[in-house]
Amino acid sequence: MSQIPVELVKLLIALAAIAAFVGLNGLVLVYLERKIAGHVQRRPGPFEVGPHGLLQPLADAVKLIGKQLFTPAGADKLLFWMAPVLSFFPVLLLFLPLPFGPTATGMEMNLGLLLILAFSGLNVLAICLAGWGSNNKWGILGAARGVAQSVAYEIPLLLSVLAIAFQTGSLNLSEIVQGQGGWPWQWNAFVQPLAFIIFFVSALGETNRAPFDLPEAESELTAGFHTEYSGMGFGMFFLAEYANMIVVCSVATALFLGGWQGPFFAGSWWFLLKVYVLLVVMIWLRWTYPRVRFDQLLNINWKWLMPLALLNLLITAFVTKLF
């Protein structure tokens, strides 16, 4: 009887740990989102379920799990239910190359950054399937917006990542982290501040976060591409959004903020601290700035982010070649 390969066992354990991590972080981020929203609006936020509302995310999760799964009349059942699955499960693979610590990487690979960029594009397909498969006019409009937005904002995001790849000569996130130091002036964000800003703004657009949440604009499209979803169909889109937020903040931490390295005692806590600081900034931006119009959203990309990202890449390539 042949033995199970050790690498396969490690991969399965890593995926199980990632699934648990995503679920737990989903609960934490729901609580953070609602609490920060409350304080920004001068109210306490969740307060009744558990001490200071700590059990509110758990109550929300139980409510979602208990709701009926409903397929609208006229919807394409296969596409309709394929969309939330396609939105959530590929996200788990994006966590594999992330270096959470010196030895805490799900799967060490030379092209880890390329894997993340390749599989993150599947979310666009999920949005498209959700809007089209639900046979709902708001869903189709949201899907069309989502595809246009994702295709546009992927380009400056890729260009900002390429600048770091040129500078470090690697697509391995662990090697990129090791090439930085623990102090802020040793981080790539200090050397490449423009690339960091472009990456972060593009990440907001890619994850459909306010002020760029046009695909699900409640005031215009009810809930956009997931208007017709209930129960865990909606829950999977919800979890996928938070998982994607963690991924983009983790990639930003590895590329620009020194990853797990810190001024004292390098370790995973530094990585998680930096990731959560970026997540809090993303949540704070949502509840501070109004939603932009769709023409403004595309103008920000094509008139500002794209030219600046190209200029930054050309300067990086020139300086790298020269020195």
From TrEMBL:
Query: Which InterPro entries does this one have?
Result: NADH_UbQ_OxRdtase_su1/FPO (IPR001694), NADH_UbQ_OxRdtase_su1_CS (IPR018086)
Where found in the cell? Answer: Cell membrane; Membrane
Give the primary localization class.
Answer: membrane
- Which key words are in the record? Cell membrane, Membrane, NAD, Oxidoreductase, Quinone, Translocase, Transmembrane, Transmembrane helix, Ubiquinone
Q: What does this protein do?
A: NDH-1 shuttles electrons from NADH, via FMN and iron-sulfur (Fe-S) centers, to quinones in the respiratory chain. The immediate electron acceptor for the enzyme in this species is believed to be ubiquinone. Couples the redox reaction to proton translocation (for every two electrons transferred, four hydrogen ions are translocated across the cytoplasmic membrane), and thus conserves the redox energy in a proton gradient. This subunit may bind ubiquinone.
Into which family does the record put it? Answer: Belongs to the complex I subunit 1 family.
Stated name of the protein:
NADH-quinone oxidoreductase subunit H
What is the organism field in this record? Maridesulfovibrio hydrothermalis AM13 = DSM 14728
